[in-house]
Design brief:
Elements lengths: L2 E5 L4 H17 L2 E8 L1 H7 L8 H19 L9 E7 L3 H12 L3 E5 L5 H6 L3 H8 L4 E4 L10 E5 L4 H17 L2 E8 L6 H15 L5 E7 L3 H11 L4 E6 L5 H5 L2 H4 L10 E5 L4
Parallel strand pairs: 1-2, 1-4, 2-3, 4-5, 6-7, 6-9, 7-8, 9-10
Antiparallel strand pairs: 5-10
Helix pairs in contact: 4-6
Length: about 280
Amino acid sequence: MKTIIHATDFSDNAISALKYAYALSKKTKSVLWVVHIFNNATLASTLNDPILLPIEESIQQKNAKLKEFCKSHLEGEFDSLNIKIEAIEDSSVVTGIISKADELYASMIVTGMKGKRVFKELLIGSTTRKLIEKAPCPILAIPLNATLDTIKTIVYTTDFEEEDISAIFRLTEIAKIYNATIKIIHVSSKKDVDSQQEMEWFKEILTQKVTYKNLEFEVVFSDDTYTTLLQYLDVVKADLLAMLERDKKGLFKKIFHKDLVKKMESKIQIPLISFNEINY
């Protein structure tokens, strides 16, 4: 892991994400880029100013705000922090972030979670959701007030797909640094009697390609995927939830089915890292 991007909107949620991203960058010895995407025309409209500021002047102002934002919320002098900042003018926040990620060959993009119903926010058109669908690297979404001291337990949800293996391999880059256990689980319908056999097959294939030793495998039987997953995260005291964004099927789609979204009254309290199968 060489480069981490934190995309900020200067909100309270972004403060937690900034601190988490910085702590992770220090631990992984990565360069942290803190970026802010803005639309100059929208900014002028918000200020009721019919005269657009020159792009260069707007960028200068936003860079100053970025620097102050980092200084205010991170310990130490800004010049001593391994941080780079950049304000980027783009009509699309998602396009601006992805362009920067492509340019830097970013290893990860860190964002803040928003709203009381985090999974609903991810489902219907938020910046984070769009990044999950389109970004060339994993997206790490940080809930409000989350902190990074250590990572002991990571939960990865699998549907036994080939792309899961590549995603888990990438996940071990973080797990190794903290000597964390990765609990690989599959939530299956109580009527699905073949899941245990599939898990054994998946375990055999995975351990041939991923040498990390702290892996555990478990099939959990339930017809209520969302509730079961939340309970499991609580029982194992998970520090991080990892998922593969699948195009048409799989656990992610089951969780975010519109009927289940209505039940989501409480927000998840741990970070969520999402890998997109199109990148693997």
